[in-house]
């Protein structure tokens, strides 16, 4: 009898359970997110936290844009707000977003990190401390090195690390730097990242 055939993303999920997803993106990120987030079910059993670099001193309308396209609840993250399953949280403009040990958000006005506030590294590293191996980190297209260290922290904590294929990314600088700093578990095109997120839902529902 032939052994069952597993895709790389299926093999990476085998025997694992996850409690949260953190996604980071910069240049080209909105288009990439529109390929991977819509279609997830309203009752998704984990929170998804998204940080996208944006122009300073301008309000973000990302939560509104994605709320019109998703079955999941979509909100802008608030200070002290608990993370809840079935919800996508977008980092607000002008603040660094972190995850606290009580599994709630904190917002801070520390100086920009790699010219960015919110910074992907802040939320990824803090979430890695809280969730450890139960965290999935996804880094998408972008034009600077923010997110590479944060994704490495997720990997060092035992979490699953995923990088968009740099050859497919609108801007490959960010994914290439993440790969350079620490080899991720998976390097995938957007269609397979979308499949991975759908498989996370199935994996958790069958726990």
UniProtKB/TrEMBL annotation:
The active site is at 26, 53, 146. One of its GO terms (molecular function) is protein-glutamate methylesterase activity. Coiled coil: none annotated. GO terms for biological process: chemotaxis. Its EC number is 3.1.1.61. It is an enzyme of class 3 (hydrolase). SUPFAM superfamilies: Methylesterase CheB, C-terminal domain. One of its GO terms (cellular component) is cytoplasm. It comes from the Bacteria. It catalyses: [protein]-L-glutamate 5-O-methyl ester + H2O = L-glutamyl-[protein] + methanol + H(+). InterPro entries: CheB_C, Sig_transdc_resp-reg_Me-estase. Residues 14-193 form the CheB-type methylesterase domain. It holds the Pfam family CheB_methylest. Keywords: Chemotaxis, Hydrolase. This is protein-glutamate methylesterase. It comes from Pseudoduganella aquatica.
């Amino acid at each position: 009898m032939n052994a069952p055939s597993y895709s790389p993303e299926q093999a990476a999920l085998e025997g694992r359970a996850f409690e949260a997803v953190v996604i980071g993106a910069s240049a080209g990120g909105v288009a990439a997110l529109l390929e991977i987030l819509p279609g997830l079910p309203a009752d998704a059993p984990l929170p998804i936290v998204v940080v996208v670099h944006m122009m300073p001193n301008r309000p973000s309308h990302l939560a509104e844009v994605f709320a019109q396209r998703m079955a999941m609840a979509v909100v802008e993250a608030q200070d002290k707000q608990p993370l809840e399953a079935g919800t996508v949280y977008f980092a607000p403009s002008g603040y660094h977003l972190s995850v606290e040990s009580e599994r709630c958000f904190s917002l801070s006005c520390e100086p920009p990190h790699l010219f960015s506030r919110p910074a992907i590294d802040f939320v990824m590293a803090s979430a890695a401390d809280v969730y450890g191996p139960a965290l999935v980190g996804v880094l998408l297209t972008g034009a600077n090195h923010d997110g590479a260290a944060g994704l490495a922290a997720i990997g060092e904590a035992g979490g699953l690390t995923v990088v968009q294929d740099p050859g497919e990314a609108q801007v490959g600088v960010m994914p290439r730097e993440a790969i350079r700093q620490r080899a991720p578990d998976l390097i995938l095109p957007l269609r397979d990242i979308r499949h991975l997120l759908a498989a996370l839902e199935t994996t958790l529902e069958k726990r």
